[in-house]
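Long-time lurker, first post. I've been practising inverse folding by hand and with some scripts of my own, and I keep getting stuck on stretches where the structure tokens seem ambiguous. Below is the full token string for one chain I'm working on. Before anyone asks, I'm not after the true native sequence, just a reasonable design that respects the backbone. If someone could post their per-position residues I'd love to compare against what I wrote down in my notebook.
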């Protein structure tokens, strides 16, 4: 705060306190001429009087003014003067936060050092993890953890980055970044104008054998292009690679949808998915508890 504004605020405080004191003194002075009667009469016998306030009330008002001065000396309130008590709202927040952190630490302490599959077998740990999941993860994966377009379902047994306890822990704590580059230009240069459609048809045929009777030639062309371009990540058999986060193209789970339009869009424009690392955001223990809750959803028998 600049010296000018500090002086301005102090001046306002002094004027207000002085004004209240003067007003109180002025209105409580004894009147020398007919101190009570105002000559205002109604209905013949109802007279208005102007008498000073009771002395106890006046003294109480003076005490509040004295208290105000003491308050402004102890606490900040008069410009840049910090007060002799050195009170600040930041310090109060820090104290409350430290107390809250200690309380949480005591709650989490029994679960330290345990793996998420161990935590998933503890009802209290699962309940804590569910609360953390609700505040931290439900925005993307949904309140029921069943995901949405572009966000995986956490209640099934399909895990693009692996579903072991260690792999799920790494996913939650350290996050994941998946990148499907655009292959439109490369495929077109290799297979012509219909290359993207051919690869799309081939991918669809992996889970829909009926396409073989109507699109055999396109599937054959697409299969060759897939082997040249896509198999590096998705594997020669199209079953994906958990080390790269590349999904299995032969199952029924499709993160961005299984329609021809959705698959073609992914090939043409690529996909980029990011799972933020939770450890830097909420701490390792909270992230582990959330991971334990997630683990319990897809491993109900192992968490009992």
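-- Answer (accepted) --
I ran through it position by position. Result:
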């Amino acid at each position: 705060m600049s010296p000018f504004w500090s002086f301005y605020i102090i001046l306002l405080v002094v004027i207000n306190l002085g004004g209240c004191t003067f007003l109180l003194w002025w209105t409580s002075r004894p009147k020398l001429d007919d101190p009570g009667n105002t000559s205002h009469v109604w209905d013949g016998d109802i007279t208005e009087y102007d008498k000073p306030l009771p002395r106890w009330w006046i003294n109480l008002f003076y005490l509040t003014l004295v208290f105000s001065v003491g308050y402004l000396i102890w606490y900040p309130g008069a410009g840049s003067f910090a007060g002799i008590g050195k009170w600040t709202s930041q310090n109060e927040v820090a104290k409350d936060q430290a107390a809250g952190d200690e309380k949480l630490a005591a709650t989490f302490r029994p679960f330290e050092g345990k793996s998420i599959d161990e935590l998933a077998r503890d009802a209290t740990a699962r309940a804590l993890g569910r609360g953390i999941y609700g505040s931290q993860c439900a925005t993307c994966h949904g309140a029921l953890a069943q995901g949405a377009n572009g966000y995986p379902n956490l209640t099934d047994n399909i895990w693009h980055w692996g579903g072991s306890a260690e792999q799920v822990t790494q996913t939650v704590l350290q996050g994941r970044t998946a990148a499907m580059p655009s292959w439109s230009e490369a495929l077109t240069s290799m297979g012509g104008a219909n290359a993207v459609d051919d690869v799309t048809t081939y991918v669809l045929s992996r889970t829909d054998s009926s396409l073989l009777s109507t699109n055999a030639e396109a599937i054959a062309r697409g299969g060759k292009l897939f082997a040249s371009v896509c198999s590096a990540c998705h594997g020669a058999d199209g079953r994906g690679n958990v080390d790269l986060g590349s999904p299995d193209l032969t199952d029924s789970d499709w993160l961005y949808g299984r329609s021809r339009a959705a698959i073609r869009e992914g090939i043409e424009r690529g996909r980029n998915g990011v799972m933020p690392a939770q450890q830097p955001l909420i701490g390792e223990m909270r992230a582990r508890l959330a991971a334990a809750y997630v683990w319990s959803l897809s491993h109900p028998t192992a968490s009992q």
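A couple of notes from the structure itself: The two ends are 60 Å apart (CA to CA). The beta strands are 37-42, 46-49, 176-180, 271-275. Happy to go over any region you disagree with.
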